[in-house]
Amino acid sequence: MLGLTILFALPLHWGILTGITNWLSPYIALNSILALRSLVFLNIIGLSVLAAFWFRKNFFCRYLCPAGAVLDHVPSPARSRKKFSLRKVPRIGKWLVVMSLAGAAFGLPLFIYLDPLAIFHTFFSAFVQTTALAVAGSMAGLAGLLVLQYFMPGLWCFRLCPLGGLQMLVTDIRLFAARKLRRKQKTDLGRRLFIGSVAGAIIARVIPSALAGKENIIHPPASLEQGKMAMVCTRCGNCLKSCPTRILKEDIRFTAGFLTPVVIFEDGYCLETCNKCGIVCPSGAITPFDPGAKKGIRMGLAVVRSDDCLLSTLKECDRCRAACPYNAVEIAMNQTSGLMLPAISERLCVGCGACKVICPVSCIDVIG
Amino acid sequence: MAGGAIVLGSQCSRRIDKDQPDIQPVTEPGADGKQYITEPQRQIPVFAVTDVLVVGGGPAGTAAAIAASRTGAETWLVERYNHLGGLWTGGLVLPLLSTHAVDRNRNMKQVIYGLGDEMWQRLKAIGMSISDVNPVIDPEAGKYVLEKMIIDAGVKLLYHTYAAGVLMDGRRVTGVIMENKSGRSVILAKVIIDCTGDGDIFHFAGEGYETMTYNLGLVHRLGGIDTIDTSRPGYVKQTVGSKTPIKGVNWVNMHGKDDQDGLDAVNLSTLQAEYRQQIWENYFKIKESPGYEKIYIVDTASQLGVRMSRIVSGEYRLTLEDTMSYRSFDDAIGISGAWTTMLYKGRKVPVNERPYWQIPLRSLVPVQTDGLLVAGRCFCFEKELAEDTRIIGTCLVTGHGAGVAAGLAVKEKMNLRDPDKGRLRKELLTQKVYLG
To answer: What does pLDDT average to over chain B?
Structure first.
C-alpha cells in the first residue's frame, strides 16, 4: 500500500489517478462535504472508509495509512533517554476533528491540512517545485512527523492525528450508542462534542476577514476565493502534479495560503482543453469543471503594455491574437496612438496566459 | 441563336437585320442569387508547349523555375506583374525570414540554402542585403538579381500575364489558360507548379482546399530617415519603420485589418485605397513633428500584403508537432527555419529554441489533381503553422523542392505521388539544398 501510494503521489502524470490515494481519507471527505455543501463521485471512497470505521477500529492506521507505515520504520531513541509516555497527553486528534468539522459546517474547515494522507502527498510535490522554499515547505510536514516520532514515539499516531481522532470519535459514538441502548452510565461525549463544535464554529466565523486576500495573485481555474482556499486546500499537491503545462506552483508567501496552489506563467499557459486540477482535487478547493466551461471560468485578465509591443514599432507580429484560445485579442486601431495594437476583451479574456507566454517581447501581464 | 446568325452572316456575307432580337446574352440566376451568363466557347491559340510551367513569379515561383530548368527541363514562368520576387520585392516585405533555426544538437544554424542562399549571397555581393540572420534586402536589387538568375538558367519568362483557367484531362491538369495584352492563350505543360500564393491553379482545377482569413496590410518605404534631427526642440520619437540596405530609406510594415479575405477583388480594392490614404495621412502627421520635416514617401508597395488565403489539400498535412519535434521525412525537399515564438503543448518555445523543420514533397502534391505541384504559402499544412509557412524563406524552400521534383518528373519519369526518394534527395543535394 505504501508503494502504491508513493507511486500515485509522485508527479508522474497519471491523469485522474494522480494522488488518488488522497481520496481514501474520510477526514478530508467530511471536511470538504461540510464546507462546500456538495460532494463529488470520488468522495464515495472516503465515505466507504468512514463506514468501515464503524466496524473495524484502527484498520486504516494498520493497513492503509502511508504516513503510519513510514513512521513505523523510525528507529527507537537511544536507551539512555527517559522513555516518552503517551499517558499524560490528551487525545488532541479528536478535538481537532470536532473543531474542524464544526468550522467546516460554517464554511471553513480549520485543520484539513493536518490529514496524514495530505501531509504524505505534500512531500512528493517537492519534485515539481522550482523554489527552494517551496521544496522545503513541501517536505517539512512529513519530515516534522519523522522527527516527532523519533523523540516522542506514537504521539502523532495515537494522540494528534485527526484521521486517527476521527476513528476514535466514530468508536466513541458507536460505544455511546450501544450504552444508550443498554441505558448504562452517562459519558461526556455530548459535552465534548458541544464544546468543540462551538469553539470551531466561532473560529470559523472570526477568521475569514483575517484571511481575505489583498495581493494580486492568480489562482487555479474554478478554485475557491483566497481566504476559503487557504482553509479548504489540503496542500496535497495533486493539482500541481497533474498540471500538464506545469504552471501551478505552491504559494511561498508566509500567509494563511502558504503552500496552496497559485498560477505562475513562465513558459506555459492554462490549456483550454484541460481540467485535470479540478478532477484530482480531493477537497474541492478546485471545483471539477468541464473543459467546455472553461471560457466562462476566469482566472485573471491579460493586460498589454503597449509601449513595449512589437506592433508599436510596426514589427510583424500577431502572436497574442493567434495564441488566444478564446478570441479575446483583437489587433485594433488605438485611438490615442493611431497604431494597430492588441486590444483585449475583458468579456472574453479568462486570464489563461497564452498571450503572455507567447509574446516575443513579454509585454503582456495577467492580473488577478 | 444570335451568335449563330452572326457567324453565318460573316461567312456568307448575309446582312444582319437591324432589329435582330436577343443580341444581349441571356442572364441566368445562379444558386447564390447572383446573375450569371454562359461565356461563349471560342478557340484560343496554344502559346507554348513545354515540360514545366510555373505560374507566379514570387520567391517560390522563381526558385521553382530555376530549379526545374537546372534539371534540364524546358521551363516557362508566368508572372502577373512586371517583376519577380512577388511580395518580397514588389510587396516590399523585405526580410528573408527564417534563414536560421536550432538543429538537433541545439546549435543555431543557417538552414536556408540552395537557391534562397544563392539569391541572398548575390544580393550581399552587390551590397544590397543587410544583417546575417534574416537579412533585409533592397527590393529593386531583388528584382534585378532574381531576373538575372532566371535568364541565366534559361527559363522562358512571360510578364504581365494572368492565369485565367486550366485545361483538364480527367484528373490531370494539362495546361493553363492565360490572359494578357495579346489576348487569351494557353500553355500546355507536362507538369505545372502552382506558385500563385493564392492557389489559383488548384482552385481552377477543382482541387480541395481550406481558406484562411488573415490580417492584410500595405507596406511602404520612407526616405530621408538620415535627415531626422533629434536635437530640434519639441522632438518626439515617431514610428518610421526599419532599416533597408539603402541609407536613409526605411521600410514600414503594416499589420492592417484582421480577418480579411484576400480573394475578394472588391475587398482588395477597398483596402488598397484605404491603406494608401492612411499611409499618406500618417506621413503628413509625422512630417509635422519637429525634426521630421525632410522625410518623404519613397513608394507604397505595388501589391497588397495578402498573408494567407487558400491552403491546398495535399497528400500530407504538415503539423505543428512535425515542426516542433525534428520529424524527418524520407521525401524531404528542404528545411525551413523559425522567426517567432510558438506555443507547443501549452508551453512556450522561444525563437532561439525553435527546431528546424523538414518539409516533405507529399505536402506539395495535391490529393486529387495529377500533374500539379503546389509551392509557396498555399502548400499543405495545419493553420497553426501559417506564421512559419507563409514567409519568404519557406516559399524559397518549397519552390526549390517543387522545381526539382517537377524537373525529375519530366526528365526521368519520376512519379510525383511515389517518387524515387534517393534520386530526389541526390538532385536536391546537387542543387545545394540543406536536408539536415
So the answer is: 93
Give tens-digit pLDDT for B398-436: 999 999 999 999 999 999 999 999 999 999 999 999 998
Which of A311, A322, A357 is opposite residue B255, by nearest beta carbon?
A311
Convert A70-86 to b/e letters by CB count within 10 Å (16 or more is b). bbeeeeeeeeeeeeeee
Helix (H, G, I), strand (E, B) or coil at B216: strand
Q: How far is A269 from chain B (nearest CA, A)?
A: 6
Interface residues from chain A to B (CB-CB < 8 Å): 244-245, 267-271, 274, 311-319, 321-323, 330-331, 338-340, 354, 357-360
Phi, psi of A344, deg, nearest 5: -105, 130
Does residue B23 belong to the interface with chain A, where contact is any CB pair within 8 Å? Answer: no
Distance of alpha carbon A74 from alpha carbon A55, whole angstroms: 29
Q: Which three cell numbers stand for residue A110?
A: 480549520
How far apart (Å, rounded) are the C-alpha atoms in residues B299 and A29?
A: 71
pLDDT digits (tens, 9 = 90+) for B122-142: 999 999 999 999 999 999 999
Cell numbers for A206: 472570526
Share of chain B above pLDDT 70, in %: 94
Q: Where are the domains of chain A?
A: 2-214, 299-367
Model pTM? 0.86
CA count, 13 A, side-chain hemisphere, B181 = 6
Distance from chain centroid for Cα B150? 16
**Contact status of B49 with chain A (Cβ, < 8 Å):** no
Q: Which residues of B touch A268 (CB under 8 A)?
A: 346-348
Contacts for A113 with CB less than 8 Å, ≥ 6 apart = A119, A233, A234, A235
The percent of residues in chain B predicted with pLDDT above 90, rounded, is: 90
Nearest Cα residue in chain B from A329: B258
From the CA of B148, how many Å to the nearest CA of chain A?
30
The whole-number pLDDT of residue A168 equals 85
Sorted by sequence, the CB contacts under 8 Å of residue B110 that are 6+ apart come out as B99, B100, B117, B434
Find, in chain A, the residue whose alpha carbon is nearest to that of B219: A314
The CATH code of domain A299-367 reads: 3.30.70.20
**Of the candidates A68, A27, A93, the residue with the CA atom closest to the CA atom of residue A283:** A27
